[in-house]
Each structure stands twice: as structure tokens, then as C-alpha cells.
Amino acid sequence: MNELDKEYIEEFKTYLSVEKNFSECTLKAYSSDIVSFILWLDGADCLKADFNKLREYLHFIQRFDYKKTTIARKVASIRTFYKFLFRERYIDTNPALSLSAPKRPKSLPKFLTPDEVEKILNNVKIETPAGFRNRVILELLWATGMRVSELSSLNFGDLNLDENEIRVFGKGAKERIVLVSDRAKNYLIQYIQSARKLIAPDYDTGEINDNTPLFINNTGFRLQNKTIRKAINETVEKIELPKKVTPHVFRHSFATKLIENGADLRVVQELLGHAGISNTQIYTHISMKHMRDVYETAHPHGAAFG
Known about the structure:
There is one protein chain. By secondary structure, this protein is mainly α. It folds into 2 domains: 3-87, DNA polymerase, domain 1, CATH 1.10.150.130; 114-297, Orthogonal Bundle (hpI Integrase, Chain A), CATH 1.10.443. The protein has 12 helices and 3 strands; from the N terminus they run H-H-H-H-H-H-H-E-E-E-H-H-H-H-H. Helix 6 packs antiparallel against helix 8 (182-199) and helix 10 crosses helix 12 (277-298). The longest helix is centred in the last third of the chain and has 22 residues, at 277-298. The relative contact order is 0.10.
């Protein structure tokens, strides 16, 4: 890989991070996809690749045992890369405009029941300041449906607790307001007033202002997503819950519960920060499946249903 290619990749990573507000995980995946593509070009100029060349690369990667979701992501990476190059005027035409990915298999997101969520929340160890912080984080994930990257990015200036509101910056740096339950708000206030200052007692975290990170680690820096995932994993393992639970499962659970309780689909769309209603409609399928399962279990003729 030549120096120019390295510069394009570094600029692309900055674009994904700053302008697209991609998570660290997505940024790494997209960057890796583009590095693989450029290495496959074997010295050929990536700026001169045409649509046929891109299709040739897709045929090449389909020789491997990738899942359809992985191939779809690789296509998305290339499309985004060439969109970036075109926007920055490195190329006159975008060869990836008509590049299409294989259809992703449709699957319903996994979610937790309210009882399962409460079991997780009640088993988080809150005896330490960091443990109490973790309980607050899970309370917020359940109460707001935020993405974990959105939550870890929160600053004090994003809070409007008098109105039970939090400002969130989602994908593409799109701003929205999420609503906070009284219970989650009360936990958050306790964290701010007591636990936060005890998490990094040996470090000077400075005066709190609008740009100060809300959630910090034991060295006083912004809490990372992996710490939140670790806290969930430790609790789930302890209670032996027979489900894989991630921060995103809390998001799915939040949306599913709203739909089951009759929430308007457009409201759920706004709260989740979905660009289109089609992304939110998946939760109506979850709700229907849940109703079918309940019917088949509770109704005397349920087994014949459908």
C-alpha cells in the first residue's frame, strides 16, 4: 500500500468518526474493509477503479465463507469510501453508486421481558461507586432506548433533568431528545451528586461544565463502551440468564415494550432516532410474535392457532 492510499484511509477514518459519528467498532470494520480492498487492487490506483472493477472484487470475496451480513457491510464500506472520495473531489464520478449488496436475511431482534430486565438491574453490584454507575447506565438504557455509543458520549450539557429530557447525538451526528423515567432520573441524580466524584478519587477531573463527560472510568476519562458491555456480561452470568444480552438488546427491549403497550410507531421512531419508519416496523413483528406465543400458551385451542 502506497503513501497516498494511507492518506486516503486516514482521511476516510476521520470522516467516519467526525462527520458520520460512527461507533468505534463500525469505524474499525469499515477501515479494515477498505484496507483489504486496496490490498486486493495490488498496486492499482483506487481512484481509477470503475464499476466493473468493484464488481470483480465482490465476486472475489464471495469465494470465501462470509455471512451475507458481512458481505453487505463490505459493500457498504466501499460505497461509503467512494462517496467520500467523490465528495472530496478526488474522483470525478462515483463508480460505487449502483453497487448492490446481497439481501440480508431477515431476523427479529432479540429482546428481554420487563421481568428479565428487572432481574438484571437488581443484580448489579452497587456497593462500589463504579457499580452504582453501572446500575445507572443500565437504568438509562432501559428507560431511553439509547445506543451504547450515544450513552457513553453524553456530556453534562446534554441533560435537562427538570423536564426529564436528555439530548442525544446519534448516527450521522443527528440530534434528538430522549425521555427519562423518574426512576432512572433519580438514580442519575444520585450518581451525579455522590458516586461520580468517588469513581476516580486519585485523579483531578476538573470543574464540571457542559462539555464534561457524564460517565467516567477510574482514571477520570470518559467511560468506554466495552466497560458497559463487561458490566452487563458479569451480571447476566451471575444470574444465569439463558440469553445473550448486549446493550443493544436493552434498546430492542425498550422499543418492543413501547409497541406492546400501544405506542405510536412514529413516536418510537423518533425516540430511537431511526432515519426511516421501516427500521422501526420490525418491532411490530416482534410484538405480533409475542402475542401469538402468549395465545398459543394460554388459549385452550392455542395449538391450532395460525
